[in-house]
Amino acid sequence: MKMISVRELAKTRNGKMLLLLWALTAIILVAMPALGSVREELAGNLAFGFLIGSALLNLSIIVAYKVGSESVQIAKAGWIGLGVVILGFAFYLFDGKPNSDIAMFLGWAMLVHSFPVGLIVSLLFAGISYLLYNSFSVDVKVGYLYLLVVWLVFFAAGYFQWFKLLPSLIAKFRRK
């Protein structure tokens, strides 16, 4: 597959929008943690950067489908990469406590990363947690396996939404 150049991409309005979204994502994903390390609030700034970066990447996926398949492949690589980075930081920042706040970080980051299907996944997790606790008195503890399962469910749902369901919907509407 021939890769599209930045120069070619910048020739169209949608291509310029795509480049802008990718540039803003990169700037935010670098600037927010850097600001956090200076202010000694790395985790909070990192989480905020992931939220904004994920939202921008999601928007870029939609624009990429208008630009062309090469752009979608780049957006897909960015989306997968950011998802893996989110998991990596969740593992790195996990403090080993059974009620660790890192689960909230991971949940919010992956909700935005897999938005809008992430809302359904969140409701599913909330419902399962409610049933487990109220029906069986099971209190789910945060651990590496828990973080991995939560990430995997959000990631799989988001991947399906952006790279399987959306292309088929676009193809269906283009045929009409």
Q: How does this structure look, described?
A:
The protein has helices at 6-9, 13-38, 42-67, 69-93, 102-113, 117-136, 144-175. With 176 residues, the chain is mainly α. It has one domain. Helix 2 runs antiparallel to helix 3 (42-67) and helix 5 packs parallel to helix 7 (144-175). The chain is flat, with a radius of gyration of 18 Å.
Features:
176 residues; mainly alpha; 7 helices; 82% helix
Secondary-structure topology with pairs:
Layout: H1 6-9, H2 13-38, H3 42-67, H4 69-93, H5 102-113, H6 117-136, H7 144-175
Helix pairs in contact: 2-3, 3-4, 3-5, 4-5, 4-7, 5-6, 5-7, 6-7
Quick overview of this protein structure:
The chain is mostly helical and 176 residues long.
Shape: flat
Give the tally of structural domains: 1
- Spell the H/E element sequence: HHHHHHH
Instruction: Name the poorly predicted regions.
Output: none
User: How many angstroms separate the termini?
Assistant: 28 Å
For the sheet with most strands, the description reads:
none
Give the averaged pLDDT, no decimals. Answer: 91
**Overall radius of gyration:** 18 Å
**What share of residues are in beta strands?**
under 5%
